[in-house]
Design a protein that fits this description.
The chain is built from 4 helices and 42 strands. Strand 31 and strand 32 form a beta hairpin. Strands 1, 4, 5, 35, 38, 39, 40 and 42 form an 8-stranded antiparallel sheet that branches. Strands 2, 3, 33, 34, 36, 37 and 41 form a 7-stranded mixed sheet that branches. Strands 6-32-31-30 form a 4-stranded antiparallel sheet, with no helix packed on it. The chain is globular and about 85 Å long.
């Protein structure tokens, strides 16, 4: 009878999930996906490093609580770029197009550790605050100052139908205010007004989002509800009107609302939701993009700091990033992401990055004109992210990690009979990578419940030479892609693989892996 040696090939078609079965037969998800980027080719790569935007620390080394890429159109037909940051010690800084911080706080009063919400309208950058401090405004010159008129001291705001909408004041936490349609500083004229959105329901208005000519109003952070404001004017044939979209989803942070193409993603107390799906189905489960990560959001995060989450669309890499605080931490130092770059083929892929990320923003790099991801640190620096050099601030290494669940290998024994608990004899492990340098990838392979065995794969560009290189260290192919091979010995029913690359200034780019094995017959003979 023919040799029944079998090779099972695995691609990384899923991101990490906390709530699925620990044993699977196809690799549809990962137990861990840390410090990775999913690429359009289907490969998974070590995320790029981080470098300081400002070489000199901001005075006092405060936490950077918010950032905004502010562009002024002006009247001369040209644009002016500013990059603005607010800090935990009640300061506002402008970096312009460089890396030098200029204090533009002036005489403004801001509460300590107040998290900003930024709204731009008519070449005016407006700052709203999580502690309901007085809203501030900046034109790009001089210092920030109190927003003119009589605006509410709101906690959240947005720009919708040429008006500023603001909500969440201390006196009226469920009241929605709107400004004039011709001025961001007119809050008392005939073209202004307010709505009460189910006052005294145990919540307040946490966030606002303008989406497809409607204003979505999110209440939280306790019970939660979502409301929709339709209409285009205070009075008339298309007057403003409100309806309830659904109840039970409580927005946690106004800055967790992220526009992604034709959708808006937001974070409730359960995880990340799609606004399109919420609007279409008005159903909790249908809208939950992270339905297999409810355990992660429930047990792995410091839920007392969900109001400090920032979300951004890192479109050039096809992913959305939210900054989080792990359960054992008191600051944001884990970025949770959803990769949508191959969404039509494989769905979204969750992952995490472990690095300081108190706040997040997208900045147009003035030198390259590319939209780059930046994180605000907790020690007075702004960090440009996902750079070519694989280090944090030149000297710190970090580890890419991909861990699979237990992969059940055999379906039939060596005679072709169906077996539910089929033992196999392992022969080889393959790893297909793109050469990135003379850097090692370590694979810890665990058979059933045995102690893991470590195998090393080099990502150099030299091809495999028969009778010169050995199979457990050599490279097949070379060129654009290469295949590393490790000989295995022994029997098992399932295996899990823990793939890591943690070298300073070292990269990793993995396309797929494979296991070669032979099913064992009831007589114990693996090959007939």
């Amino acid at each position: 009878m023919a040799n029944r040696k079998h090779t099972q090939v695995y691609q990384f078609q899923g991101g990490f999930a906390s709530d699925l079965a620990p044993q699977i037969r196809t690799l549809d998800f990962l137990v861990k996906a840390e410090n990775v980027v999913y690429e359009v080719t289907g490969a998974v790569r070590k995320v790029g490093g981080a470098a300081r935007l400002n070489s000199t620390v901001i005075t006092g080394a405060p936490s950077v609580l918010g950032m905004f890429d502010f562009w002024v159109a002006g009247v001369a037909g040209s644009f002016t770029q500013f990059f603005v940051a607010t800090t935990s010690d009640s300061k506002v800084y402008n970096f312009g197009t460089g890396g030098t911080a200029s204090d533009i706080t002036g005489a403004a009063t801001i509460g300590a550790n107040a998290i900003p919400v930024f709204v731009q309208a008519r070449d005016l950058l407006i700052f709203w605050w999580s502690d309901a401090s007085t809203p501030l405004a900046w034109t790009g010159t001089g210092n920030v100052a109190s927003l003119g008129g009589s605006p509410p001291a709101a906690r959240c705001a947005t720009f919708h139908l040429n008006r500023i909408w603001a909500a969440g004041t201390n006196a009226n936490p469920s009241r929605l205010f709107y400004s004039s349609s011709v001025s961001a500083e007119d809050w008392t004229g005939t073209d202004t007004g307010s709505f009460d959105i189910e006052p005294q329901d145990g919540d307040r208005i946490v966030g606002l989002m303008s989406y497809k000519r409607k204003l979505f109003i999110f209440k939280g952070p306790n019970k939660g509800s979502i409301h929709v404001l339709s209409g285009t004017a205070p009075t008339g044939a298309d007057a403003f009107s409100r309806t309830v979209l659904m109840r039970g989803l409580a927005l946690q942070s106004p800055n967790s609302l992220v526009e992604v193409g034709d959708d808006v993603l937001f974070m409730s107390q359960y995880g990340i939701h799609s606004l399109v799906a919420t609007d279409r189905f008005a159903d909790f489960q249908e809208s939950l993009a992270t339905r297999f990560l409810m355990g992660y959001f429930r047990d792995s995060l410091n839920r007392n700091r969900l109001n400090a989450v920032w979300g951004v669309n890192y479109a050039s890499k096809g992913m959305v990033i939210w900054t989080m605080t792990p359960i054992s931490a008191t600051v944001n130092n884990q970025a949770f992401g959803l990769s949508y770059i191959r969404r039509s083929e494989e769905g979204i892929k969750p992952f995490v990055w472990n690095r300081t990320c108190q706040s997040a923003a997208i900045r147009i790099n003035p030198a390259t004109n590319l939209k780059e991801l930046v994180f605000g640190s907790n020690n007075g620096f702004i960090l440009r992210e996902d750079l070519v050099d694989r280090n944090i601030e030149t000297s710190t290494a970090y580890t890419m990690r991909i861990q699979t669940p237990q992969l059940v290998l055999g379906k039939q024994d060596a005679l072709g009979s169906q077996r539910f608990d089929q033992p196999v004899t392992l022969h080889r492990l393959y790893l297909r990578t793109r050469p990135t340098g003379n850097y090692n990838i370590t694979v810890a392979l665990q058979r059933d419940n045995a102690t893991p065995e470590n195998y090393t794969f080099n990502q150099g560009t030299a091809g495999f030479l028969l009778d010169v290189d050995s199979l457990d260290t050599g490279v097949l192919g070379g060129g654009n892609l290469q295949v590393g091979v490790a000989d295995l010995v022994g029997e098992c029913r399932s295996v899990s693989l823990d793939i890591t690359q943690g070298g300073l200034n070292q990269d990793a780019n993995i396309y797929e892996m494979a296991l070669e094995f032979t099913p064992i017959s009831e007589s114990g003979s693996g090959t007939l």
